[in-house]
Each structure stands twice: as structure tokens, then as C-alpha cells.
Write a structure and sequence with these properties.
Structural class: mainly beta
Number of strands: 38
Strand content: 35-45%
Number of helices: 2
Helix content: under 10%
Length: 426
């Protein structure tokens, strides 16, 4: 029996703490690059200015708008995230990458953007119109559309690089109408690409091997699950024969692939999109509904649907804003991330909610405070009583636990001693 834990936590007054990381704000309408960028009222105007001002561990939070920029991230690890849902477009204007994640950026997270019209113009081979990824990164809740072209580019939407070989985790992304000359219209994996709940539709490769969907080369590996590859020309997934093909591999499971592909749980039926001009929701009765890996759950606690869904994107604000404290750095861990949301809260504002989890899984939220004082917060939980629990610990020692169907309650923890103290809700 799958049991889900849906804990919510709302901060009251938290301890003063040293800033271990910062949030940098971007607003293309009201911002100015002369601003500090350290609050929404003093936002930067361009995304690149905020990236340049950020340090490793920082969050860059981007407000709605279209940003005609060629973003470059080098030698720092940050999270680049949108405030809203699919309302921020990075437009490469067919004159360069939308985003290049260069070396030295392992652990970077990209969340919630539309990347369009990216087309590198360098001499020689041209890769990754939407994102050129040269560091280990997580890319989630993004749309790649109309990147690359059919005469020059070796990958239209996303290129996962090699030398050194990197790993990109790609979750809940849509690849639509991207084009290339060779290797992969939507994606080329020369490194390792792990794709979960993605949709690839209408991508085209015009020449070598004609892999319109996901191409693999140079000893790369593509692992694809809970996804849809449909209507790509001419092949949905394949190995590029011109670059070390014998060591390049792919594995597809619990996915819908036009024409079929071997792998556990795969189907080849028409996915029955509700519409094909924006977010590609699934029609009622689609064979891709509740057809993903039985061990993988969507945010509503049901078995994962195949393919991208805008409904999986949960937004309120950053965790620090949802928890009413911008001085603390909150990080999520475990099998499912916590997220800010405003549907359920203690006092009509917002709260942080754990991701949906199953048996033998956990979801944690961590912050660090400095010095002695008291920590007060509101929390609630909906779980199977006495089996699934929401607990809080201080420096590894349990402080309180709630389980079952528990309404909002206030809890206070006393922190003693100098130095840093780790507080974990799990």
C-alpha cells in the first residue's frame, strides 16, 4: 500500500542568522541593472546581471517577461528559477544560445523557463540552441521550442556535453519544434541524460541519421522514463552513427514512443494530447494517464502520467518567502522536493509543502541558524497515523513529531549554544 506524506510548514518568527546564501531578483519591467537586486523592489533588469552578481549557493528569481539574452553561467553553482509558471521566456533571437552552463557549475538547477529561438552562431559545429550544458545540472519544468535550425546545428534544444562527460537530470520538460542538421533535433546526449516525465513532439533532424527526438553519441547515455516521444522526424530516439556509436546507448521504460521501442512498460499508442499549441495536456482517456512507472507518483499522489505537465509545476514564491523569512537559506532533500505554495496555509498567505512520497521514502527541509534563541513555527500533516510522520530535529536530535490528520499547531524550539545549528523538518 502506498502511503503519502503531505506535510506543510509555515514559519512564524525565526532566529536571526548569518546569511549563508542570497536571493537575487530580476524584473524586466520594473528593474534596473543599477539596482542591488537583493529584493523584488530593487530587482535587476536583466537575468545576466543577476547571474553575474550571484555566488555559489544563491538563488536567482526571475519575474514574468521575455528576456532577449544569451545567458552564460561559469564557475558557480546557483539555482535559476522563475517566480510564476511558464511566464518567463529567454529568447535567443536566433543569434546565440539561450543559456550556456559552462564548466565549474556542477549542481546548478534551472527551473521553470521557456527557451526559444536559440541558435549558436560560432564557427564550426554548433550545439544546444536552447541550453548548452557543460556541467552536471538539473533542468526541470522547462519548455524548449523553436531552437536551432536544419542547416548548421548538431542539436537544436539541449546539448549534454562531453570532455568532460557531464550528467543532466531533465524532469518535466517539453521539447517542441526544435531543429538540427545532425544528431538530435530536441536533444543530443554526448554525456549522460536522465529524462523523466518529458514530452518530445514535432522536433526535426534534417540530415545525418535524422534523429528528431533524442540522439546519443560519443559514448553518451540517455535514460528515458515516464515520457512521450511522438511526431518527431524522422526517428524518435537513436544513436548517431558517426561518433563512437558502439559505446553510445539509450534505455526507455514506461514511455509512449511512436512506432514502438523495446523496454518495460512502453506503449506506442497515440498519446491523445488535449491540444498541441502550448502545454500539451493529455485528453481524458489518454493511454498515457496513470501509465508511468508504478513507483513514481505525481504531485497529486497518483501514479505518474507519461510526459510533460504544467500541472506538476508548483509555485508560490521561494521557500524563504513562503516561510516568511528571507534571512534563512532553506534547502530541500530526500526523494521529493519541498515547494512554496499558497493553496493551503495557516493564515491565508503561503506555506512550504513536502513533495509526494511513497513507502520507504522521505522528504526533508533544512535550514541553519546561528547562536542561541527560540524558533517558533506553525505546522500540520496529513499521513497514515503512526506510520508516516513529520518530525523536526535540532542538530540531529528529535524535538517534536506529528502524524495522522493533524491541523495547524504552533511549536517552539529552544536553541542553546554559540555557532551554527541545523534544523531539519522531515
Amino acid at each position: 500500500m502506498i502511503r503519502t506524506l503531505k506535510g506543510l510548514l509555515l514559519s512564524g518568527c525565526l532566529l536571526p542568522t548569518a546569511l549563508l546564501a542570497a536571493t537575487h531578483y530580476v524584473d524586466g519591467t520594473t528593474g534596473s541593472d543599477a539596482n542591488s537586486g537583493m529584493s523584488s523592489a530593487t530587482a535587476k533588469k536583466t537575468v545576466q546581471a543577476a547571474i553575474d552578481g550571484a555566488s555559489s549557493g544563491d538563488l536567482v528569481l526571475v519575474a514574468a517577461g521575455t528576456y532577449a539574452e544569451h545567458l552564460v553561467l561559469t564557475n558557480k553553482t546557483i539555482e535559476l528559477r522563475t517566480v510564476g509558471v511558464l511566464d518567463v521566456t529567454i529568447d535567443g533571437t536566433q543569434t546565440g544560445h539561450c543559456l550556456k552552463i559552462d564548466s565549474g557549475c556542477d549542481g546548478t538547477v534551472i527551473d521553470g523557463f521557456i527557451f526559444c529561438n536559440g541558435a549558436p552562431t560560432n564557427s564550426g559545429n554548433r550545439y544546444g540552441g536552447g541550453i548548452e550544458c557543460r556541467s552536471d545540472a538539473t533542468i526541470r519544468n522547462c519548455v524548449f521550442k523553436n531552437n536551432g535550425n536544419g542547416s548548421q546545428h548538431f542539436s537544436g534544444g539541449l546539448h549534454i556535453g562531453t570532455d568532460p562527460k557531464v550528467t543532466a537530470t531533465v524532469y518535466n520538460c517539453l521539447f517542441l519544434g526544435n531543429r538540427c542538421f545532425a544528431c538530435g533535433g530536441a536533444v543530443l546526449c554526448e554525456g549522460n541524460g536522465n529524462f523523466d516525465r518529458c514530452t518530445f513532439y514535432g522536433n526535426v533532424c534534417t540530415s545525418w541519421n535524422r534523429i528528431g527526438g533524442v540522439g546519443v553519441a560519443s559514448d553518451g547515455m540517455a535514460t528515458i522514463k515516464n515520457s512521450i516521444l511522438y511526431g518527431n522526424k524522422d526517428k524518435e530516439v537513436g544513436v548517431y552513427s558517426g561518433q563512437r556509436p558502439n559505446a553510445s546507448t539509450y534505455a526507455v521504460t514506461y514511455s509512449c514512443v511512436s512506432g514502438g521501442v523495446s523496454g518495460l512498460g512502453n506503449i506506442s499508442s497515440d498519446p491523445q494530447f488535449a491540444e498541441t499549441n502550448s502545454v500539451f495536456g493529455l485528453a481524458e482517456g489518454s493511454p498515457c494517464r496513470d501509465a508511468g512507472n508504478p513507483s513514481d507518483l505525481d504531485p497529486d499522489g497518483t501514479r505518474a502520467d507519461m510526459g510533460f505537465s504544467a500541472g506538476r509545476i508548483r509555485r508560490a514564491t521561494s521557500l524563504s518567502v513562503a516561510l516568511d523569512n528571507s534571512d534563512l537559506l532553506f534547502t530541500s532533500g530526500g526523494d521529493a522536493d519541498w515547494f512554496g505554495q499558497s493553496e493551503v496555509s495557516h493564515s491565508g498567505g503561503s506555506a512550504a509543502q513536502s513533495g509526494s512520497i511513497g513507502d520507504n521514502q522521505s522528504s526533508s527541509l533544512t535550514t541553519t541558524v546561528t547562536g542561541a534563541g527560540t524558533l517558533t513555527f506553525w505546522w500540520k500533516v496529513s499521513s497514515e497515523s503512526n506510520y508516516d510522520k513529520l518530525s523536526v530535529s535540532l542538530d540531529g536530535t528529535g524535538q517534536a513529531t506529528i502524524s495522522g490528520e493533524q491541523g495547524w499547531r504552533q511549536t517552539t524550539i529552544t536553541v542553546t549554544g554559540d555557532g551554527e545549528h541545523a534544523i531539519v523538518w522531515k
